Amino acid sequence: MNNVNTQQKKKTILTYIYATVIGLLIVACAVTIAVVSNNNSSKLNVGEDTPVSANTYIVPMRNYTIQKDYSGSELQYNDTLKQWEIHKAIDFVAVDDLDVLAVADGTVSNVYTNYLEGTVIEITHSNGVVSIYKSLDSDSVTVSAGDQVSAGTVIGKASDSMAQELNNGAHLHFEMTVNGVKVDPNDYLSLGEK
Questions:
Q1: pLDDT tens-digit profile of 151-178?
Q2: Which of 32, 127, 167, 183 could covalently link to 80 via disulfide, CB atoms 3.0 to 4.6 Å apart?
Q3: Cα separation of 191 and 163, whole Å?
């Protein structure tokens, strides 16, 4: 009987320790998320006098479907790499029109090609905003670094050149940054109901 009581006490103590550790981990995670959120919100502030609104930018493809939406924290499955990962971009597809459009007036700040991202165009806009277009067809690119573009200018065509998303087929992998920090393009584009 004494042995049974000792085992019950040990189980009770271990359960208490386990619950305490889990509770502390939850609190630590909550504090970390709050700190990161506060830090990111200060980094993403584009200026008191120049707020960026959703109607400032146009959608980068016509007659599009969103193949994979932005996710800054929830994992999404990458069928090409066979792994779960965050996806800080929006993947657009449009079967009948692969033209990719500049989302706002700006200056082409970079055009390059690499194996993982395919052909990439970066356009710098006002207020530290940069739009980034990946998985473009290299032969379709119509702009060079230094070119001035207007919202709606065709800058290239979507393709399957992005090796890390090869199984997605021809698509535009679209990212946005503000002052060098990736942001959710949904906050800037009017995408309607999804």
A1: 999 999 999 999 888 788 899 999 999 9
A2: 167
A3: 26
